[in-house]
Structure formats: C-alpha cells, structure tokens
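Reviewers of the previous submission asked for a worked example of the structure-prediction workflow described in the proposal, so we include one complete record here. The input consisted solely of the amino acid sequence. No template or homolog information was supplied to the procedure at any stage.
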Amino acid sequence: MLDEFDSSVVPLIRRPPLIEIHTIGRHNLFLIRLRPGYPCKKEPQLNQHTLSMRLERVAAQVPAGARLADIGSDHGYLPVALMRRGVIAAAVAGEVALTPFLSAERTVRESDLDQHISVRLANGLAAIEPGDGITAISICGMGGETIRDILEDGKAHLGGHERLILQPNGGEQPLRQWLMDNGYRILCEELLQENRFYYEIIVAERDAPVRYSAQELYFGPLQMQARSPLFLAKWQRLLQQKHKTLGSFAMARKGVAEQKVQDLARQARWITALLG
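From that input alone, the workflow returned the following structure tokens.
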C-alpha cells in the first residue's frame, strides 16, 4: 500500500513559492501542486491490490463525494474501487468497445453496485447524460491526442464545473494546449515511473483564462517549475533519444521532412536549456 505523503520536501534546484513537491513513500513518484488556492486532494488510504499504481494516483485526485464519469473504463476497476471505499457518491463507466463494456458490466454486477454505477456503451463523453450530475471526469491510459479529441468532441457534455483527471500515455503537449485553449487551469501534475516508462497525471478545472508558454505546454507548467529528480531524469533520457534520432536523420539525408527535423531540433534545444 502506498504510504502517506512524506513530510520531507525534495531538494530542488529552483522551487518557486507557488510550487510544492513531495515524495510518496519509497516509490519513484512525485506530487507537484500549487500552494494554497489550488490544492490537490491528499491521498486517501487505497487498496493497492485492486488498482495499479497509476490508477491509485488517479483515484487520489477524485474529490470525496464526487459523481464520477470514468471514460474508457475498461474493466470498471476505478469506479468500483472508489465506490467500495466510500469516496464517490455515484459513477458512470463509459466504454466504446463491446468487450471491455461487458467486462465492466460484470465487474459492477459482481460487486453488487448496479444501483450506484451505470455502465454505458458509448463513444467518449456521450456516456454522460444530463441527469447524472457529474462532477469529476477521469480519462486514463490513452494517448494525449486521443484524450484531447474525446474532450473536444464531447464539449456538449461538459458543464464547465467538472474536475478533469487525465492520465495520457504520451502526447501531453497537445492535451495541455486544449486545456489552455478551453479555459482550464492545470491544478496538479504528477509524474510516476512504472517499469521503464514515465507516466503523467494532469488535473485541471475550468478557471479564469490562463496562458502557458510553448515550453510550459511541452514540459508541464508545474513540473517545469518544480524540477523534481524524476522529472529531470525523464528529460535527460529523452534528450539522449532525440540526439540519437537527429543523428539518424542526418545519416538518412533524404526522405525526412524538414519540418520534422526542425521540430525535433527545437525540442532538443528546449531540453538542453531546461537541464542546463
């Protein structure tokens, strides 16, 4: 089981007054959050045998008493676990594919939670109905572009008061761009490492218009300021990969779009400046 937040604050190269960063237990996992005004929800005691580390961290950002829409719910593990723990009041588990939809139905039925969790076969946010009173939306385990498209295509189902809890598998930059363009402020960013892979969790709510720079959209505005050890390690690895790719492009000489080379070179310069 994940430990409570370590009270020690990780030493930082630069730590602006609006940013807090905490280690969580003994895991390679860091919580980055705004100081008072936009607090992230503290982690409840969760059953690690039920959810993966990533879903545990997503669960930790669901407000108590929320009415949750879990989009792309797969087996429905997240809403079922949160309902069992008394964290949420009700939930919708949405799935666009038949096989995971049936799996989610079975999970909810076997947990005897049919009266509290509605499992719906629907595309994206179309799983949300007007009477659901949804206050939090989780979308996990998809590419950032896919999550962005789900949000864009489902705008009619967003009331503007929902907390968005997003766990993209890559493609964070276009997702942050959509959030900014649609009036969402990023309240919390988490970076965690499972096996050899890095994953991010982005929590956002509708707020006054906010502007992020191109670099903030690329690295994450809160993570870029906090500069946790895991964050720096991630970008050191990615810089090596980008230099290797640029070297391959140079050897190929032909067949590589110039714009692609320029974009990659610009990203490498940004990372070098960040790490410098």
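The beta strands are 5-9, 19-24, 29-34, 66-71, 88-95, 117-121, 136-142, 163-168, 184-194, 197-206. We consider this example representative of the routine output the project will generate in years two and three.
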